[in-house]
Specification:
heterodimer; A: seven-stranded parallel beta sheet; about 30% helix
């Protein structure tokens, strides 16, 4: 059976959920071979094997942390040459997309980004994508070279599928471009303790109707009662009420959770572009004419400062 | 020595319009009015600011696309860019991102550059891979997704605010940078700028000018194929209730029925 390379997104060996989802998808089109770069391969290998990796290729070098993306591309290129895979799957993060693009060019291959599903087709993997603010669903495939495909979080279930997970060292030679962009300084962001926005199963968002940074605590309390991530509309971010890293929409993050709760968000096309593929959508808004209500499975026309705290209390009560 | 800055811009269908695919499953550019991709306005702004901070610098805007794509360059000229280049060729119809990066790279090399500035993604395809592809093709450092950028002493420096960390990045020129919508509000063209743009040079190039074989681009030369595009079925009308004191409880009831709580 053909091998499929899966790029492992991890923090010091702690594998992030989207990579485990990729292993599920990779098994549909072949045998997953995981590529783990940087520290923590031993920790990661066990988890990767548990989720179907027949092999884990690993390399560690200071270049992976000290320079932007190219050293990782060099490593993946070496892995692709060693394995001759049927496809290369990469998580659709900002970094993942850059890696995928450069790798595709080097392999003489086409690249597909932001797939939301992947199946085996007669002429290689078929990717489902959503286009034009999720108004269309497309089916695409790579028609030249080794398909390089980035996949959005929440596109497949995480499934245990124990495999050998044999760890092998990958020999990597860094090219002249590898040290082009130096990371001079890195300041870790303070962890919010909440799930990562793009990976979360539930997202609770606030918009213009939240009307102030201090009021976002109402949104956060609901999110915490549900174990959800917090999102914000562009209006809320531009007003300085919530960080840009939490912005959902065309110029922010695109999310596709099981449940999206929009509070005080009118639902302009730019926001819809970032959340329309959510499985279930609910909204609270004072304005009964707000376009967000066209998308909802359940909507409440009312003051979010009345409705949201009541909902939070109810969630807490029901969860006991 | 003068600093040559090239900013890559794209003409996209207005997102507030009713965007469609054409019969050949390429973007239907006739159905909706186009405009300069909003995310590219930030790139033009940063290119102009970098030029204004330099002793001697010139900014050229370049675009690839059909006749009306000239509108993207025109907007950049109105904002203050000195020159425009429009690559137009019938053979380009249906070109995918790999092909577009080839054409842009050749055009940028034709223009001559020390720094290439792009937006973080287009607002139509929204792939966000073009900056990386261009840097790879040009063989220069890519300093991507910057919320702050500066050029001094032959180096470009910038700040990238990622999900897990904020990073300070540095590369030597020539280099490519991409900027986010956090890099700073883009200026509006002034009346003077609009009038001046009419007199600015706008060069038109085709594939033969750039030495590109038409077979490498276009729908037939694309590296990916779209086999199907289906309009998403409209959502079935949901339940909407008016809050009369029980709205939060009703919402909780719905969430419980869907097993979210």
């Amino acid at each position: 059976m053909a091998e499929v390379l899966v790029y492992v997104d991890h923090v010091d060996g702690a594998v992030r959920k989207p990579t485990l989802e990729l292993l599920t998808l990779a098994r549909r089109i072949g045998e997953p071979v995981a590529v783990h770069l940087g520290p923590g391969a031993d920790t990661a290998a066990a988890v990767l094997a548990e989720h179907g990796a027949v092999k884990v290729l690993t390399a560690d070098a200071p270049e992976f942390a000290d320079y932007l993306v190219v050293p990782k591309v060099d490593a993946l290129e070496a892995a692709a040459k060693a394995v001759s895979p049927a496809a290369v799957l990469v998580p659709s993060s900002a970094e993942g997309k850059e890696i995928a693009a450069r790798l595709a060019l080097r392999l003489g291959s086409g690249v597909i980004t932001d797939a939301v599903d992947l199946t085996a087709g007669d002429s290689g993997p078929v990717a489902t994508q959503s286009a034009f603010a999720a108004a269309f669903t497309t089916k695409s495939r790579v028609s030249k070279g080794t398909p390089v495909i980035t996949v959005k979080p929440n596109s497949a279930p995480v499934e245990p599928a124990p495999a050998a997970g044999t760890v092998e060292q990958l020999a990597v030679t860094f090219g002249p471009l590898a040290t082009g962009t130096k990371v001079v300084q890195r300041t870790e962001r303070k962890a919010s303790g909440r799930p990562e926005l793009t990976e979360a199963a539930i997202v609770v968002s606030g918009g213009r109707g939240v009307n102030g940074a201090e009021n976002f605590s109402v949104i956060e309390q609901l999110a915490d009662s549900l174990g959800a991530a917090v999102g914000a509309s562009r209006a809320a971010v531009d007003a300085g009420w919530y960080p840009h890293s939490n912005q959902v929409g065309q110029t922010g993050k695109s999310v596709s959770p099981q449940l999206y709760i929009a509070n005080g968000i009118s639902g302009a096309i730019q926001h819809r572009a970032g959340m329309q593929t959510s499985k279930t959508i609910v909204a609270v808004n004072k304005d009964a004419e707000a376009p967000i209500f066209d998308l909802v499975d359940f909507g409440v026309v009312g003051d979010l400062f009345q409705v949201v705290p009541q909902l939070t209390e109810e969630v807490k009560a029901r969860k006991g | 020595m003068s600093l040559r800055i090239v900013v890559a811009v794209k003409y996209v269908p207005d997102a507030t319009g009713d965007r469609h695919f054409a019969e050949d499953l390429t973007t239907d550019r006739d159905a909706v009015d186009g405009l300069l991709s909003e995310l590219d306005e930030y790139a033009v702004e940063q290119a102009l600011q970098i030029a204004e901070a330099a002793d001697d610098a010139e900014v050229t805007a370049v675009t690839v696309g059909p006749e009306d794509a000239r509108g993207a360059v025109l907007k950049a000229l109105q904002m203050g860019v000195a020159k425009g280049v429009h690559v137009e060729d019938d053979a380009l119809h249906g070109t995918d991102v790999i092909g577009t990066s080839l054409v842009l790279a050749k055009a940028i090399e034709h223009i001559g550059y020390d720094l290439v500035v792009t937006g973080m993604a287009s607002t139509d395809g929204t792939m966000g891979v073009l900056p990386a592809l261009l840097a790879e093709r040009l063989g220069v450092p890519g300093v991507t997704l910057l919320s702050e950028v500066a050029v001094a002493d032959g180096k470009v420096t910038g700040r990238r605010d990622g999900d897990v960390a904020s990073e300070q990045l540095e590369a030597s020129l020539p280099a490519l940078v991409s900027v986010t919508d956090q890099s700073g509000e883009a200026r509006y063209p002034s009346f003077k700028g609009i009038m001046a743009a009419k007199k600015k040079p706008l060069e038109s190039l085709d594939l033969s000018d750039l030495g590109i074989d038409p077979a490498e681009v276009g729908l037939a030369g694309a590296w990916t194929a779209v086999d199907d595009a289906t309009a998403r079925p409209p959502r079935t009308a949901g339940t909407i209730v008016k809050d009369e004191g029980e709205g939060g409880k009703q919402l909780a009831e719905f969430l419980a029925s869907q097993k979210f709580i």
